[in-house]
Design a protein that fits this description.
single chain; alpha+beta; 27 strands
Length: 689
């Protein structure tokens, strides 16, 4: 097997808030993959850093009565504490507020200027006359220009989902001071992203560079057209001042990804690693090095368009792969820092919950796609107790009792035919291959399922041979020794399989097995003698989880509908049936964004009695909608048909996926359901008024 040389990064956490369980999905996913690659013998450097610049940092520091430097130093210590507590093992955890980051930012910027990809031009933006600063999008609030919902942010409406410029807001005000902002002109620097479109179309379609669903998402942005990217901000601003441009600072999203290189460069200087071999465009290709980013899907735009375009234009190497993961929900509810619906990593650890319980649960849920995962607390307790304690740890506990009592802990090196040995021997290579392939593809759920199927076989083998009865008969001693030794040998294999997910538990198991530092290459070996068995892992007490919920009850109890309404909402098909009701105003009607939609794909939903899954084209934007029209239509009848859809309905997470809108249908007293269709000449994306 050829040795790989890989620089791996996780998305940089912002230095103005705590690490929460949603954050840990991405870092756990990355850490498992890194540990697996190292067990294969590959050279892997795992780097990360705090994202430390921007207006929010400056304002948070002011609020806390400290300097920005003091704030980011405090947050760095807290973040590293929490990551360490969850066994996230970085080779270097650094800061974007570093000399290395400043140097690389300047180098990249000067190369972009030389390539004629930077343009300075005036823009008009909102200025807070009280605070004396230009307002970033998220610090301006007002009335949505589309649906007129109040108190919306300056870049997007949380009510209707529309995006717009801050200057489009109706009755805007500063979210910092409450003052009415004034429009003020300022010179800004722009990166000519549009000129990189041809390169990006090729790069994004590279083999394995991005997940298929990520490529589909990027296609929407390509169709909309890539616009020039504003990469500067005006003073006062906490960040790096642009060379030869007093009072102008690099926008945080330009220099934050450069923090990957800065962290790695700091590691290289400390460890004697060749930095240029991983970062230079020519050297990285000649040295066959890889650079892999693990990110959340919400920052795909920056990592799959801006970042590779900047790197290519500045003659740096581009990412080999960018892997995006979904969000975390807790008990089916969306986690959001702005709404406070999160459990912090610190809170979890302070309640005394084992961090590897959560690592295992995440692994069991994680796949290679951008699909969201749900932390169901009841399922969390049941799965960990059943899999890790009831199956995996139970094997070592049961077998070690007999081995110590009758054989001084010695492990038989040659199995004696017991009539059941083939149960464990058969298919071991296939299990190993499946687990290895699943880890490499980030399909941890598949790896965990394969390991637990193997655990079931081991426990069945043990029960079928009844060692408690063999121990009673002197002439069955050899068979007893073989049965318990085979169970321990299988436990040894399972420990290797699970080590990327459960490093601390694996270390305790290695001590028990007398096999420290297990790697993948140890699968063909077996322990010689086991040590004294101590409890490797305890069960989750549901009271611990209840205490965790209580400690975070302000964030874990969103407003709920009455039970009957809630149950109906969970199964509600995304169609609208109109019935007479109270009069509404024109403004009320204007809040509903009705669009002509083309049904480009329709299919049955496995396990659903009423639903069809529709893929809608809303004029260049693709939406997935689950519609309760199965009784009225066959999928083939719908493909190519135009209908009317509610485009600004909040996405609804359903059993079968996320529904991103509604299609309109009519019904009456009698049977029948009739999908609405626009007149001839209408085209996808047209507004219905």
């Amino acid at each position: 097997m050829e040795k790989r040389r890989i620089l791996v990064t996780s998305a940089l956490p912002y230095a103005n808030g705590a690490i929460h369980l949603g954050h840990l999905v991405g870092y756990t996913q990355t850490d498992i993959w890194v540990r697996y690659q190292r067990m294969q013998g590959h050279e892997v450097h795992y780097c990360c850093a705090d994202d430390t610049h921007g207006t929010p940092i400056m304002l948070r520091a002011e609020q806390d009565g400290v300097t920005p430097e003091q704030l980011i130093a405090r947050m760095h210590a807290e973040h590293l504490r929490d990551f360490t507590g969850f066994h996230i093992e970085f080779d270097n955890y650094y800061s974007t507020h570093s000399d290395e980051n400043r140097e690389i930012c300047y180098e990249i910027f000067r190369r972009l200027v030389k390539a004629d990809l930077i343009e300075k031009r005036p823009i008009e933006q909102y200025f807070d006359p009280v605070k004396g600063l230009f307002l970033p999008d998220r610090f301006i609030k007002g009335e949505c220009p589309k649906c007129h919902a109040k108190d919306q942010y300056g870049d997007a409406c949380e009510s209707c989902g529309s995006t717009y410029a801050p200057t489009d807001l109706v009755n805007p005000y500063s979210a910092i001071s409450g003052a009415i902002p004034v429009r003020k002109q300022s010179d800004h620097y722009f990166f000519k992203l549009g000129q990189c479109a041809d390169f990006l179309r090729i790069w994004t379609r590279g083999v394995g560079t991005l997940q298929p669903e990520a490529v589909n998402k990027l296609d929407e942005w390509f169709r909309a057209g890539l616009t020039d990217w504003d990469i500067s901000r005006d003073a006062p601003y906490f960040g790096f001042e642009i060379p030869d441009a007093p009072g102008k600072y690099f926008y945080v999203w330009l220099e934050a990804p450069i923090g990957y290189f800065a962290s790695f460069k700091n590691l290289c200087a400390r460890e004697g690693i060749d930095y240029d071999a991983f970062t230079d465009r020519i050297r990285s290709r000649d040295e066959a090095t890889e650079m892999i980013h693990f990110i959340g899907k919400d920052i795909l735009y920056f990592h799959a368009l801006f970042w590779p375009a900047v790197l290519e234009s500045a003659a740096f190497r581009t990412p080999t792969f960018v892997f995006a993961h979904g969000f975390l929900t807790v008990n089916g509810e969306k986690m959001s820092k702005s709404r406070g619906t999160f459990i912090t990593a610190e809170s979890y650890l302070k309640q005394g919950l084992n961090p590897e319980w959560l690592r295992y649960y995440y692994a069991a849920k994680l796949g290679p796609t951008m699909e969201d995962i749900d932390l169901s607390l009841d399922d969390f307790v049941a799965r960990v107790n059943s899999d890790l304690v009831g199956k995996y740890v139970n094997i070592a506990s049961r077998a070690s009792t007999f081995l110590h009592r009758h054989f001084d802990g010695d492990i038989s090196q040659a199995a004696v035919e017991t009539g059941h040995d083939n149960v464990l021997a058969a298919g071991v290579q296939e299990i190993e291959d499946e687990v290895r392939e699943a880890y490499n593809a980030r399909d941890y759920g598949r790896a965990v399922r394969a390991v637990m199927r193997y655990a079931d076989r081991i426990n069945q083998y043990f029960d079928a041979n009844k060692p408690w009865e063999l121990a009673k008969r002197q002439d069955d001693r050899a068979r007893l020794h073989a049965v318990c030794s085979e169970a321990i040998a299988a436990f040894h294999r399972m420990t290797i399989f699970l080590k990327p997910v459960l490093p601390a538990l694996a270390e305790r198991a290695e001590k028990f097995l007398g096999t420290p530092g297990l790697t993948w290459h140890d699968l063909g070996r077996r322990p010689a003698q086991i040590g004294k068995y101590d409890h490797l892992m305890t069960r989750i007490d549901p009271k611990q989880v209840s205490a965790l919920v209580e400690a975070n009850k302000e964030t874990l109890q969103p407003t709920r509908q009455p039970h009957s309404q809630q149950r109906h909402a969970q199964h509600q098909e995304h169609i609208v049936e109109t019935t007479p009701g109270s009069p509404i105003s024109a403004d009320d009607f204007g809040k509903v964004d009705l669009r002509v939609a083309k049904i480009v794909q329709a299919e049955h939903v496995e396990g659903a009695d009423k639903l069809l899954k529709l893929t809608l084209d809303l004029g260049g934007e693709t939406r997935t909608v689950f519609a309760g029209i199965k009784a009225a239509y066959e999928p083939a009848q719908l493909v190519g048909r135009l209908t009317v859809a509610v485009a600004n309905l909040a996405p609804r997470k359903m059993k079968f996926g996320v529904s991103e809108g509604m299609v309109l249908a009519a019904s009456g007293e009698g049977p029948g359901l009739f999908l609405l269709s626009p007149d001839a000449g209408a085209s996808p994306g047209m507004r219905v008024k």
